[in-house]
Amino acid sequence: AARLSGGENRLVSLPLSRIRVIMKSSPEVSSINQDALFLTAKATELFVQYLATYSYKHGRGKEKNALTYSDLSHTAEECETFQFLADILPKKILASKYLKMLEKEKRDGEVGEDDEEEEEEDEDKAVDEDVGS
Q: Which intervals hold domain Transcription factor CBF/NF-Y/archaeal histone (predicted)?
């Protein structure tokens, strides 16, 4: 593998210092070999390039001659290879729709809590009746 120096042409586009910080954020990593850092950066670049190319080809990007966020999020949802990114690239929704979803979840959560309390009360009554017999 090629060694990187400040004056040499860059072989990777991503900043190695940032990649080093991300790698060191893992508690299992104590030191990082320069070759491992370079290979991680290059692999990351190739992955991002593949994701972008796939999203462009399979999205609406061809029509508009542009890659959009919705193309990326659609790829993350639909393509099995990229499904691990679905949480990172969620579909965009309007704030009003999100607020409605929160309200619905809140109502459903309150109904669920009421049901649990009634079940606990029924269980307590059943225990009291068994003890009283």
A: 13-74
Angle, nearest 10°, between helix axes 34-58 and 16-24?
Answer: 100
Whole-angstrom CA distances from 33 to 3, 9, 40 are 11, 20, 11
Closest Cα to residue 17, out of 3, 27, 32?
32
Q: Which domains does the chain have, with CATH numbers?
A: 16-108 (1.10.20.10)
Return the H-helix or E-strand segment holding 52. helix 34-58
Burial of 58 (0-12, 13-18, 19+ CB in 10 A): middle
Q: Is the pTM of this model over 0.70?
A: no
pLDDT band at 54 (very low <50, low <70, confident <90, very high): very high
> In a 3-state reduction of DSSP, which class is residue 65?
coil
Residues 6 or more apart whose CB falls under 8 angstroms from that of 107 comprise none
